[in-house]
Write a structure and sequence with these properties.
Elements: H1 3-13, H2 28-40, H3 44-47, H4 52-55, E1 61-62, H5 69-74, H6 76-88, E2 92-97, H7 124-139, E3 145-149, H8 154-163, E4 174-178, E5 181-185, E6 193-195, E7 198-199, E8 201-203, H9 209-215, H10 219-225, E9 229-234, H11 245-253, E10 258-264, E11 274-278, E12 281-285, H12 292-296, E13 308-317, H13 318-324, E14 332-336, E15 340-341, E16 347-348, E17 355-359, H14 363-366, E18 372-376, H15 379-382, H16 395-404
Parallel strand pairs: 2-3, 2-9, 3-4, 10-18
Antiparallel strand pairs: 1-11, 5-8, 5-17, 6-7, 9-13, 10-13, 11-12, 14-17, 15-16
Helix pairs in contact: 1-2, 6-11
The structure holds uridine 5'-triphosphate (UTP).
Length: about 400
């Protein structure tokens, strides 16, 4: 069977024949590219948008104990000692999730290239490297840094790091790899075209990072270097501590498969995922899944029972990650603005959401872990996410927090 026949058969099977609308207008190489893209794309996930109600089902939620600031303070020397030892022994690596599109910030460049400086250049990537260097200086050990990008931003990201000389980091300790892409569809699950010979795709969420890392062959580095812990973090929190010794030590000493940095919620309805137990296993409930009853529940101390939000900074045990690597992850169907070709073949960048993207999320990996240590951090010192230009979680708020922490901007 020719590639075209195979691709057409697949498209028909999934009711996606519209992707061939402009096929006859394409030159031969574009025809082949389109067929290859159709053949390589996972179309099963798209079927899920027809039974969305089944995706959201949660088990029974109950509170989980968080290691709070006062307890961390009391044990800080012991935790730090253990953490420094693990890092100095090369057992800890850092894992930067930088495959997102950063649509809310609205820059065409990868988010990490955003310059948050005011009187001087200070790029988001640079802030993260500076934070990592603090630990390198403290432990005397360079830490391997894995960086996940996507088809959309990989080349620009690598070029930027090279142009900037890795901001003083050792290049041989930095490993880039690409995540997978997923189709973007209209509300009926029909895949959009972004060019006449190209399906509309976007990164498939941040939950596939470990599988993509394995596919890129980087598990060899992890095994050869004896790395036992991976500190996964988001690109946009310019204040976060990476491979933070006290956090590493606390997770190891509490014998947990994963540690999760959390902050005390600013208000019961703050839009952060809340750490909890679900059917007795660690889990995260998204803010929109939090019922009024859970939001107002109190613990024995009279404090809100679900009071700690995750900040996308997790320390995963590598053996546990390898155990779950074959498991199917829950799918999240998210309404987004998807650039597409309209019925006249004109490229349109919509002003409001016009369809779905299909993603898996790193927070769902927590539920797969047998044990989790929620570890409280002071939000003023460690949480300055840049999602928007202004307002909450923005360039403006992050600049204020950087200044508050003595970072020259
Ligand atoms: P966000 O949920 O903030 O998404 O990602 P985003 O794509 O960066 O921004 P918006 O929603 O389009 O404005 C949280 C973290 O997960 C990474 C992001 O790069 C960020 O570090 N991420 C997200 C990925 O690595 N891959 C993805 O597919 C999605």
């Amino acid at each position: 069977m020719s590639k075209y026949d195979e691709a057409l058969e697949k498209a028909k099977k999934y009711g996606q024949e519209q992707v061939f609308k402009y096929y006859d207008q394409l030159d031969d190489s574009k025809k082949t590219e389109l067929c290859e893209q159709i053949l390589s794309l996972d179309m099963d996930v798209i079927e899920s948008c027809k039974h969305m109600e089944e995706l959201a089902k949660k088990g029974e939620i109950s509170p989980i104990k968080t290691l709070e600031l006062d307890e961390i303070d009391e044990n800080s020397d012991a935790f730090t000692f253990e953490g420094v030892r693990a890092i100095a022994d090369g057992k800890v690596a850092a894992m930067l999730l930088a495959g997102g599109m950063g649509t809310r910030l609205g820059s065409d460049d990868p988010k990490g290239m955003y310059n948050v400086g005011v009187t001087k250049d200070l790029y988001i990537f640079q802030c993260l490297i500076n934070n990592l260097m603090d630990v390198v200086n403290k432990t005397g050990k360079f830490i391997h840094l894995f960086v996940m990008t996507s088809d959309k931003n990989n080349d620009a990201t690598i070029k930027f790091f090279n142009d900037k000389n890795f901001f003083g980091y050792k290049g041989e300790y930095v490993h880039f790899f690409k995540q997978e892409m997923a189709a973007a569809t209209d509300y009926n699950g029909k895949i959009y075209l972004e060019e006449k010979g190209k399906l509309s795709t976007s990164p498939n969420g941040n939950g596939g990072w470990f599988v993509s890392l394995m596919k890129a062959g980087l598990l060899d580095v992890i095994h050869n270097e004896g790395i036992e812990w991976l500190n996964v973090f988001a690109v946009d929190n310019v204040l976060q501590r990476i491979a933070d010794p006290v956090f590493v030590g606390a997770t190891i000493m509490n014998k947990c498969e994963v540690g999760a940095k959390v902050v005390r919620k600013a208000a019961p309805d703050e839009k952060v995922g809340v750490i909890c137990l679900e059917d007795g296993r660690p889990s995260i409930v998204e803010y929109y899944e939090l019922t009024d009853e859970l939001m107002n529940a109190k613990n024995e101390k009279g404090d809100p029972a679900y009071n700690f939000g995750v900040i996308l900074n997790y320390l995963f045990n590598v053996a546990a990650l390898e155990r779950i690597a074959g498991d199917k992850m829950p799918l999240h169907i998210v309404e987004k603005k998807i650039p597409f070709l309209d019925e006249n073949g004109n490229f349109v960048k919509p002003e409001s959401p016009n369809g779905y993207k299909y993603e898996s999320l790193v927070l769902d990996m927590i539920h797969e872990m047998d044990s989790c240590l929620p570890f409280e951090v002071d939000r003023k010192k460690e949480f300055a996410p840049i999602k928007n230009n202004t307002g909450n979680d923005s360039v403006e708020s992050a600049r204020e927090l950087l200044k508050f922490n003595g970072v020259e901007i």
